Amino acid sequence: MQIDDSRELLSGVGDEQSRPHWYTQLRQLLMPASEGQHLEARLYGRVLHIHFSPAAIAAAATLQTPLTIELELYFSCFVRKAVRFHAAPPSTDSLPDSHTRILDHVHVHFHPVTTQHCSMANSPDAPPMETMPVTRPQAFLPRWVEIDFHRGAWIGEYGY
Fold first, then answer.
1. Quick one: which of 11, 57, 97, 106 has the most CB atoms within 10 Å?
2. Which residues pair with 158 in a beta bridge?
3. pTM of the entire predicted model
4. Residue 155 in contact with residue 148, Cβ under 8 Å?
5. Count of other CB atoms within 10 angstroms of residue 117
6. pLDDT tens readout for residues 34-77
7. Nearest 5°: phi and psi at 58?
8. 45's torsion region: left (phi>0), alpha (psi -120 to 50) or beta?
9. What kind and span of H or E run contains 144?
């Protein structure tokens, strides 16, 4: 990656809005290519920083069908976050800003969900999940996602 003006990199250091931009540029300059690939995606108008490990990049390059990385945020009697991988494009029922394509066959999708009643058990008779109607989904959108491919399985985590 080339930066035309080195002052541009430092121009917004004190500005909260520009911090992700300069941080990403600096990280891309200092990070060796063998460290994987860093991408940025926009969901609900906010930037989501995505890092793919070298193994995840190699696995994504072999995909013949769409893969959706679902960032699930579950609200019930507790809050749970999970990264799920689906061998399908994002649902057409999804809100337009809730997903985007990040690689040829890879999409990322933010999905806040809830249930009608609280159930601590992770059993087949657990209450069905439904999309949670969030007024400001960008307030719950994570800042970063880490994606890896290990022993034939996709692995991921996200944070704030």
1. 106
2. 145
3. 0.70
4. yes
5. 8
6. 588 999 999 999 999 999 999 999 999 999 999 999 999 988 77
7. -65, -45
8. left
9. strand 144-150
